[in-house]
Specification:
Largest sheet: 4 strands, parallel
Strand order of the largest sheet: 1-2-3-4
Order of helices and strands: EHEHEE
Structural class: alpha/beta
Radius of gyration: 13 Å
Shape: globular
Strand content: 15-25%
Helix content: 25-40%
Oligomer: single chain
Number of helices: 2
Length: 88
């Protein structure tokens, strides 16, 4: 199963969202999710990547894929397992 997240540039109540994200990601992994496609631009995207990176310790088979909208972007790619630049 493939999953994608996208969210706002800024988020309020980071801890509440992180708890929700942990529950959702765990449910998705238990249902068979193995690939997570992420945007990498805002606080929510980064929170998703960090949360999933932590979960990789227990579920090493999940993959974090950064979807690049532009080739010249300055996104931190080290948090992800791979990048993807889809043809437009």
């Amino acid at each position: 199963m493939r999953v994608t997240f996208c969210g706002h540039k800024e988020i309020d109540d980071r801890e509440s969202i992180k708890r929700w994200l942990n529950r959702v990601c765990l449910d998705l992994i238990e249902q068979g999710a193995k690939e997570f496609y992420l945007g990498g631009y805002g606080e929510f995207d980064l929170l998703c990547a960090v949360t999933l990176r932590e979960m990789q310790k227990e579920y090493p088979y999940i993959r974090l894929i950064l979807v690049l909208p532009y080739l010249n972007s300055n996104i931190l790619t080290a948090v992800y397992d791979e990048t993807l630049y889809p043809p437009l």
